[in-house]
Amino acid sequence: MKLIFANVAKTTLAGPINSTTTTIVVQAGTGVLFPNPQQNQYFTVTMIPASTGIPGEIMWCTGRSGDTLTVIRGQEGTVATAYVAGDTASNRVTAHGLLADAQIPCQVGDPNGVIAGTAGDTVTSPDFVFDVVNQVVWACVFGSSSPATTIWKQINTFQTLLSNGTRYVNASTGSDSNDGLTAGTPWLTLQHAWNVLQSTINFAGFTIRINCTGSFTAGVTAQGGLIGAIAGASSVVFSFASGSLVAATNSSCFLASAFASFSIDCPSGTAVQLGANGTGAGQGYGVLAQGGGNITIVQNVQFNSCTVAQIGAFGSGSIVVYGGTLVVTGTSPSFIFAQSGGFVSQSTTATVTATGTTTYSVAAVNVQTCAIADIHATTFGGSVTGVRYNAYANGVINTGSGGATFIFGTSAGTVNLVAGVYGNGSGQYL
């Protein structure tokens, strides 16, 4: 509770009380000298018997109505005793008020619309409450005696997860003004979902699955890690409903950089479709990990046409791992494009099947400058037009001795004489 004070608040009892009385009445017209506690507030009442003049019991007053005070007896190590009319009751500073740790009232959930409050000014601090559901502190930024008009703002940014969680995004019915906590209050955009979680959540080793529904016209550009995330694990999973779509213009569907990490999943039904255009930096990829970013494609994703590549990994420590059943279609320079130490790999096993008219204008798998595509546990199927692979400048494509036709395509792959490697990693396969 918040401790409040009034200056020169002193009076006497109007009648006697015993040691268990919890409402005391002071002399008529003097109750107004004392504070008027609101919810989760109190002030101290120090009792001084007229017979001794020695301060005795300290009470905590949690409510006042006129001259009647509602009190909690025997506080701060004092003993509740009987008093008579004329004994002094005063609001004094006590040791507890000076020395105790700050006490913040508790609230179950967001206090907006629930608790009235007082805003701070140049003299006094604002009211604070601790939200035991979301594990955050709220400060009153606009005070009112009415909960409906009081405005509370969350001040400690990170909510610590106590278990795995779920959020919701809906491209048709959502709003980025919603809280995203239920299917009835979804966010609108994938980017907003990432931004909110990155700026407000301490994951504490847990995971939040974002249930995504609908056709999205923009994806996610994720920069930077997540507080409390486990290294190498995806604390955020974009989980798409059957038949969802992400079509990114002048961007990529999913880009992870500066050690951002997340997963993409479509648990059942028709695969989520990813397609992107744009040729600027970070544009034109279905998924792109760069600058130490990490993306895991869990299952059931269809890659449509992409201006640069359907999967990209640039830079040392940048990793894309794919698994389950994937579908590719349309026209793209490459299915996989990795360079400058980027790494693309399948999880335990994966199947990539081309459908419709699928064309790769550069190479289905294009690896260069010390990048690696470890695809030995992938099964490629369907009809593809284009070069199977291209490896050069120390680029490595590991097929686990899969042979020259391991990757789909209509033209033979090429290995640049500057230390390109195709095969099982033991040397060039020509």
Report on the architecture of this protein.
It is a single chain. By secondary structure, the protein is mostly beta strands. It folds into three domains: 2-99, Elongation Factor Tu (Ef-tu), domain 3 (Beta Barrel), CATH 2.40.30; 104-156, no CATH class; 159-423. Helix content is 4%, strand content 43%. The chain is built from two helices and 37 strands. The chain has helices at residues 95-99, 190-200; strands at 2-3, 10-12, 23-25, 41-48, 58-65, 68-75, 88-90, 106-107, 128-131, 136-142, 151-154, 159-160, 165-170, 201-202, 208-213, 215-216, 220-223, 236-240, 245-248, 254-257, 261-265, 272-276, 285-290, 294-299, 301-306, 309-314, 319-332, 336-339, 343-360, 365-368, 372-374, 378-381, 384-386, 389-392, 396-398, 414-415, 421-423. The chain has a 16-stranded parallel beta sheet that branches. Strands 17-20-23-26-28-30-34-36 form an eight-stranded parallel beta sheet. A hairpin with a 2-residue loop joins strand 5 (58-65) and strand 6. The longest helix is centred in the middle third of the chain and has 11 residues, at 190-200. It is rod-shaped, with a radius of gyration of 33 Å. The termini are far apart. Mean pLDDT is 92; it is low at 425-430.
